[in-house]
């Protein structure tokens, strides 16, 4: 297990909490070098404390992904420490307000699309050259099956995820002649702050916990049996591995 990730450079967005933090811990504790992007300074510092026990090489990047200039500046700084990226995990997302379409605030619309969609495109543009230097580069776009539902009030969030899926599939086709593997990952119903905001009365004990995802994310990254342009479901994986 450790040889698979040893000395791999992995950039993870939304790494200061929830699923992103768990992915960063899982990969970092298995010998990967982690570049952790997150909005919460304290969350990133907690991650760093957890990984210090494993002597993991961790770069903490407090960042507001709505500020695209900061992403460009990050590329310059990473050039000083890393010569390549082996994987990018595009996990960061914001829920926005669940409301009727005609009640959506224009600023919140723009902010939600900035985090959930546009920042991911900027990251691809800025860091693609790092990925091309890896022997087996990998990109995971985090998605949700909410886009397949016809629920009221979910228009904003589901629109960002639907657009992100189209971007992912298009990009996968564009780089199919390169070595870059591009996949979507659906972690399912996970106990996170984002889900709590959407379903405040839900029983957390009935949900997948972030730590439950560790074996899943270890298995799917750099997995030669998984091709590009796939949607990888945790629920499907769990059913096949239990």
UniProtKB/TrEMBL annotation:
Listed GO MF terms: oxidoreductase activity
Domain of life (superkingdom): Bacteria
Q: Which InterPro entries match?
A: NAD(P)-bd_dom_sf, SDR_fam
What SUPFAM superfamilies does the entry give? NAD(P)-binding Rossmann-fold domains
Q: Which UniProt keywords apply?
A: Oxidoreductase
One Pfam family matching this protein:
adh_short
Q: Which family does it belong to?
A: Belongs to the short-chain dehydrogenases/reductases (SDR) family.
What protein name applies here?
SDR family NAD(P)-dependent oxidoreductase
